């Protein structure tokens, strides 16, 4: 009986188990229990996305290549004028009847074979396709550009226009695609003949255009695959009975098949196939791997992303055919054994129908490295793993998945490398060095950096180990290894925070005990006594700071990769340590590029709508005022930062650092670049790293609170005004309700609550002790809060002056509170936007916000552009100069 993780049904509920005295193999064969009835195939989603992109491409060509579409229609009309009218009418009649009869015939055939679920899927896809065609027709008729309408329609004989999308053809295509007619050769030929005949007759008769037919086919095809992915497709994975039958075809006599356990169901491992341990009538058991199309497509998007973002790592395609996958794994199995490595011996391969293959290996009894206890991972075992990798690399074979579950240890302690399906033969130096880096990390997680480096050097030699240091970085490791390293990093950070907090509490208790023992000073104490008390307090603070620094230094732990580098450098001090750049593009960069392109399009469209006369008639007095307010904002930013730093830091250099932040904002999101620069500046100014992070975190936390309070206060003030063009009181109420709903949603969903709390805790770790230090210096607190208010005021005044520079008459109708509300809302959107400096998001929010409070769009657009020019773009060059100067001075 084939067994799996699920509970088996009782014997009487399994009609597939014969009851008579038959052969043992026949009597015990059966299906794997409780396979999912439907699966969501990534391939269906991929086809649906390709269809959406194709539809967008067709509409784009129709919109922007009007000459091409009109020329194509003229060529088609000229080529079809000579067609006999009788032939066209007969062909049209036949195709119209066939388009309806063919789907019905196929449905009858499927119902006879009891495959009604496919017919239901097809009917659902047809209904959805019909709805999409109606919506498309309505959009083209009422809202689409004229060029698209011309490309998809023609004048009808009785007046009006033809349908842009054919309401009966798209549902038929969706139906036929969803029920799988294209996978049956005979039906496929009939299908394409009917569709081509129908399209030809409609073109010749002048009932449609070529672009309309293409769009109709794409809509039907896309809706069909979107429906299949949403509702799921019938599961066609080979069952246990199919597996046993396939083993008999290649000469084995199986008795039972047990589903192997312990394989993670993740994106990284899902394409390795299902594993079975098969018991034979005579002889040792077998390990069988079954790979089907669904498992092969598992993790497709992740592999495509890795291929696009990493440089020159893989020469294989992200997805291959079943035949290619079978040949690849077989080739690697034979090559590994020929190289002298301990690898599973492949003894047979076979297809299991058109959608699956199987690979039969000799059975390997053993446990993966991940399941071993730490005491079982001996030095001999570690050396054995390195010997296997050395054997592979001697023939330039790369494993590519040297994680803990791919290293098997049998009862005798012999190390066996499994999961070679993702490997490469004739691999390049870069990939081979990545294998060494991966195994260093995998074994280092179990035995530590010193032991794993010593074993690697003993087997591979110091040069080979040293050469892998540039690849010892998280991006070069497997997904499971990166997740483990992140988990360990979070635990280290937690221990460091706890150590610092404990040291702080101990220092405070010691200071309190010391003060209690000394007693309170007498009321008539002299000036010398008060001076002595102040000196004692300062000494206590210095002692507390030393205690915190000592605790932080004692609790600080280096990550595993850094420990491995140090061990290798002890052996080879001249080894290269500069990481190799493996990423072509980072996710943040890709998002920034897309958002930047959208922002550039928005800015250019707004500039194109702005009359040149408006810019020429600007009031240069107000422009100069806006420049002054923009310059004063850097002084306010320095005040807001230094107010939360009890240590002595140069004010002038802090102002220069804020100007340098104008350059950093262009190369990083505003909420990230400024924090990193200020933290680095404080560290270089003598503030301890943990205290520097806490100071910047305190500044950010107070800034967030001040921003929200100012937004509410100015919103309330604006709502009390008598202006009829703007009613922000309702806006404020709606905003508060929205925030309340978001807070409820976040707190109600466990994983979101954990995500937010973890991020907030890590961002503001140590802020509370830092704020207690600041509260002991009221002038510092006044400086910080005053700097925040002054910073907001300078930006609001700069925006107000920019408005007055282009429309002083219109600006008189706007209050300072209204301008402040618009700025605060726009700035919040800019901080959340992924683009550098909030490009695009800030401009859009400010422009539409000013228009909402009654400012004409022809005044709001140049005013916002001037404001952004003064606060974002013009300071870039001075910021770059300040950044370089601070770097040369060692202040950054």
The Cα radius of gyration reads: 36 Å
What percent of the residues sit in helical stretches (DSSP H or I)? 55-70%
Large-scale geometry: flat
The strand count comes to 11
Number of H- or I-type helical stretches? 35
Q: Give the termini distance in whole angstroms.
A: 69 Å
Task: Give the spatial strand order of the biggest sheet.
Answer: 1-4-5-6-8-7
Largest sheet: 6 strands, mixed
Instruction: Tell me what portion of residues adopts beta-strand conformation.
Output: 5-15%
Mean pLDDT: 75
Q: Structural class, judged by helices and strands? A: mainly alpha
Low-confidence stretches: 1-31, 262-270, 722-733
Notes on the structure:
It is a single chain. The chain is mainly α and 892 residues long. Helix content is 66%, strand content 5%. The protein contains 35 helices and eleven strands. Strands 1-4-5-6-8-7 form a six-stranded mixed β-sheet, sandwiched between helices. It has a three-stranded antiparallel β-sheet with strand order 9-10-11. A two-stranded antiparallel sheet has the order 2-3. β7 (346-351) and β8 form a beta hairpin. α16 packs across α20 (560-571) and α24 (651-667) packs across α35. The radius of gyration is 36 Å and the shape is flat. The two termini are 69 Å apart. The model is unreliable at 1-31, 262-270 and 722-733 (pLDDT under 50).
Question: What are the defining features of this structure?
Answer:
892 residues, mainly alpha, six-stranded mixed beta sheet, three-stranded antiparallel beta sheet, 35 helices, 11 strands, disordered N terminus
């Amino acid at each position: 009986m084939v067994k799996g993780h699920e509970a088996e049904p009782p014997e009487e509920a399994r009609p597939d188990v014969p009851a008579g005295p038959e052969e043992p193999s026949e009597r015990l064969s059966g299906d794997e229990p409780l396979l999912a009835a439907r699966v969501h195939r990534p391939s269906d989603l991929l086809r649906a996305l390709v269809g959406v992109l194709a539809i967008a491409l067709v509409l784009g060509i129709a919109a922007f290549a009007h000459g091409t579409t009109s020329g194509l229609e003229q060529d088609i009309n000229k080529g079809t004028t000579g067609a006999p009218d009788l032939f066209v009418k007969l062909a049209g009649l036949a195709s119209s009847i066939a388009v309806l009869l063919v789907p019905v015939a196929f449905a009858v055939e499927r119902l006879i074979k009891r495959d009604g679920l496919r017919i239901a899927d097809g009917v659902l896809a047809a209904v959805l396709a019909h709805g999409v065609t109606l919506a498309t027709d309505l959009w083209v008729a009422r809202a689409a550009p004229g060029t698209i309408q011309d490309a998809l329609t023609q004048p009808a004989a009785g007046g009006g226009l033809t349908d842009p999308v054919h309401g009966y053809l798209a549902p038929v295509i969706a139906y036929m695609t969803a029920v799988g007619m294209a996978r049956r050769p005979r039906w496929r030929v009939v299908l394409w003949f009917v569709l081509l005949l129908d399209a030809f007759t409609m073109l010749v008769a002048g009932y449609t255009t070529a672009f309309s037919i293409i769009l109709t086919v794409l809509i039907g095809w896309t809706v069909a695959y979107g429906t299949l992915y949403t509702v799921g497709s019938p599961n066609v994975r080979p069952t246990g009975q199919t597996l046993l039958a396939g083993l008999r075809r290649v000469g084995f006599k199986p008795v039972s098949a047990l589903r192997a356990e312990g394989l993670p169901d993740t994106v990284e491992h899902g394409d390795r196939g299902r594993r079975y341990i098969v018991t034979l009538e005579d002889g040792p058991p077998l390990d069988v791997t079954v790979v089907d199309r669904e498992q092969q497509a598992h993790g497709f998007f992740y592999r495509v992303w890795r291929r696009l973002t990493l440089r020159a790592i893989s020469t294989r395609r992200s997805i291959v055919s079943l035949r290619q996958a079978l040949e690849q794994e077989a080739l690697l199995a034979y090559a590994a054994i020929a190289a002298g490595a301990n690898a599973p011996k492949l003894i047979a391969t076979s297809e299991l129908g058109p959608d699956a293959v199987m690979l039969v290996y000799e059975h390997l009894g053993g446990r993966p490295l991940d399941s071993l206890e730490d005491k079982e991972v001996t030095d001999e075992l570690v050396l054995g793993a390195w010997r296997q990798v050395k054997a592979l690399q001697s023939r330039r074979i790369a494993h590519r998945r040297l994680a803990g579950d791919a290293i098997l240890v049998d009862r005798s302690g012999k190390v066996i490398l499994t999961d070679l399906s993702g490997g490469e033969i004739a691999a390049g130096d870069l990939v081979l060095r990545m294998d060494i880096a991966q195994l260093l990390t995998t074994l280092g997680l179990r035995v530590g950096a010193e032991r794993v480096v010593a074993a690697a050097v003993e087997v591979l030699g110091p040069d080979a180990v040293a050469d892998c240091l540039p690849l010892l970085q998280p991006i070069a490791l497997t997904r499971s290894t990166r997740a483990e390293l992140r988990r360990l990093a979070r635990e280290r950070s937690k221990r460091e925070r706890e150590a610092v907090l404990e040291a702080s509490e101990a220092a405070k208790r010691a200071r309190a005990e010391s003060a209690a023992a000394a007693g309170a000073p007498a009321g008539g104490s002299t000036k010398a006594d008060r001076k002595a008390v102040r000196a004692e307090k300062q000494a206590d603070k210095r002692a507390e700071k030393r205690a915190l620094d000592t605790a932080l230094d004692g609790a600080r732990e280096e990550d595993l990769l850094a420990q491995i580098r140090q061990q290798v450098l002890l052996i080879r001090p001249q080894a290269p340590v500069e990481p190799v750049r493996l990423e072509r593009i980072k996710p943040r960069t890709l998002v920034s590029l897309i958002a930047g392109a959208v922002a550039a399009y928005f800015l250019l469209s707004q500039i194109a709508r702005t009359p040149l006369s408006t810019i020429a008639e600007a009031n240069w007095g107000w422009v100069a005022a806006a420049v002054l307010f923009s310059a004063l904002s850097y002084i306010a930013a320095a005040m807001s930062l230094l107010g939360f730093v009890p240590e002595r830091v140069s004010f002038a250099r802090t102002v220069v650092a804020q100007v340098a932040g104008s350059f950093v904002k262009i190369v990083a999101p505003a909420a990230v670049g400024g924090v990193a620069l200020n933290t680095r500046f404080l560290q270089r100014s003598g503030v301890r790293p943990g205290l520097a992070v806490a100071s910047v975190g305190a500044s950010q936390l107070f800034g967030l609170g001040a921003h929200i309070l100012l937004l509410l206060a100015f919103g309330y003030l604006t709502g009390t005004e008598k202006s009829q063009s703007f009613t922000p009181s309702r806006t404020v109420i709606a905003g508060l309700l929205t925030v309340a709903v978001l807070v409820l949603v976040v707190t109600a969903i466990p994983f979101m609550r954990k995500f937010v709390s973890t991020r907030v805790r890590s961002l503001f770790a140590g802020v509370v002790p830092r704020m207690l230090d600041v509260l002991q210096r009221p002038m510092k607190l006044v400086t910080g809060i005053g700097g925040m208010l002054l910073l907001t005021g300078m930006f609001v005044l700069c925006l107000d002056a920019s408005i007055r520079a282009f429309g002083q008459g219109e600006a008189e109708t706007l209050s300072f509170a209204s301008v402040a509300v618009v700025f605060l809302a726009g700035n919040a959107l800019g901080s959340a936007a992924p683009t550098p400096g909030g490009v695009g998001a800030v401009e859009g929010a400010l422009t539409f916000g000013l228009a909402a409070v009654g400012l004409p769009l022809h005044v709001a657009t140049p005013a916002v552009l001037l404001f952004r020019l003064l606060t974002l773009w013009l300071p870039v060059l001075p910021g770059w100069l300040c950044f370089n100067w601070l770097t040369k001075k060692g202040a950054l």
